[in-house]
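Data deposition worksheet. Section B asks for the primary sequence of the deposited chain exactly as it was used as input, without tags or linkers unless they were present during the calculation. Section C holds the resulting structure in token form. Section D is free text for depositor observations; keep each observation to a single sentence. Incomplete worksheets are returned to the depositor.
Section A, Depositor: J.P.
Section B:
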Amino acid sequence: MKKKIQIFIAGAKDLAEQRQKLKAMISDLNHKNEEVDGAVAYSVSSYETFGNNQEEYNDFITNKAHLVIFVLKDRIGPRTEEEYLLSIQHQKVKGRPKVVVFMNAYDEVTSDIAYINGLLRGDDYYTSYKNDEDLVLKVKECLADFAGRGERVKAPWAAAKGMGWKVAAGLLATALLVLGVMCYFGHRDKQPILLIAGGGSAKNYIEQYRGVKVDHYPSSYYVHMPSGNSWLLITEEVISPQKEPRYYPVCISASRAKEEDFLKITSDEKFLKSGSVIEAYLGDDTLSVCLKNVPEVTGRLDAKCLREKEISVRDLGNLMKDVDSLNVFATSPNSGTRTAYEKLLSSTDVSMAEMNLLQFSEDTDFASINIENKPYMLLGSRCYKMRELNRLVANGDVVELIVYNEVDGRRQYSTKPIYFYFMAYEPTASNELTVPKQTLRLLEDLGVAVSDKVKDGKLKRSSQDSIILNFDRLPNWE
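Section C:
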């Protein structure tokens, strides 16, 4: 009996012609393999197989499919995104299905393209195709690799991981800056805009506690990305300055940057000739975890902990040491929330880097965390948690607990700082730096006291050797 490989081809409804060509190619393969000893037989399913029954899609992906092939053109719909996230989560937990994404080559970075790139970034499943013939050829090569090499799939995009820091960061920043400039030229007059980049918890903190709607801030464009990556936008501005500025990059971050974070692709000497990074502290976000309210999890915590809706770092570490009994979800690598937990849990001898953690975001679908109805725990914060859990917390199906540490016998809530980073330019002989008026306006709207530090759009440089200058420690104008 031939080995049977179950394949699911996912993608938008309007890509039916591409799916049909792939099915025809696979049918030809099966015909040729009929008389070949040891050859495999492929079984293909797609949207056309199940119609609009999403539950059947999900069941096939999680319980039957060996390989899921995503074919994308210039956008990704919510259903396809749900199928992608579900496939990735199950691959990490169960080792299957294997996932590969084929993306139509593009010349222009639209907002939809940028969103797809952000969704796929960091996953080795992505390659591009030029046309339908190229797509068929590359999927055929993928199937041969999958069937002949122990069910491993080539990851052509993984070659990008071998690039130097400068090239990789340049590509990342260029895509985002093109997106910002595109937005600006589409519906704004020719004044530089603010390109605001950063993570979700910093954005939510600013909206909840500072009253600034980042998504709709005047003359700006917001790009969601981990804090550790957003700092590269400022570095890009230093190594490739604009002759006529069309945007000014600023970063909102739930972790504190180090000077080396801005120097991975340039030297401190070149950076300081351009100016300095200014760090403004905005406040703190409190860490909280969400647990599935089942005896296997909450039964391991004492009644006082559950009654007061709080959990100690020690108890949290003990839960995570038994990670095989539950699915643990964290935010993306380099995010401020994840960095805070990594530092906090190191005191309990828990290394998150060595754990098989799953990933969640605010928009994660519930099906993606409720894998096999296994108990789960999400490491988040008061300002950043999965939206779909709010209803379950209210119903008591999920318990949200504030994280605290014992300091001198007293409880101290565990927090992560929220920072705002921006570039001050054109250092003068008198140690003055220029702050763009667009940045200055946002600083004021965020409630930062600027009147003593900034005069006529300039501030005083407190050090000629430091890449990062703390705003509160800058000299006042007399």
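Section D:
Residues 8 and 102 are 13 Å apart (CA to CA).
DSSP finds 17 helices and 19 strands in the chain.
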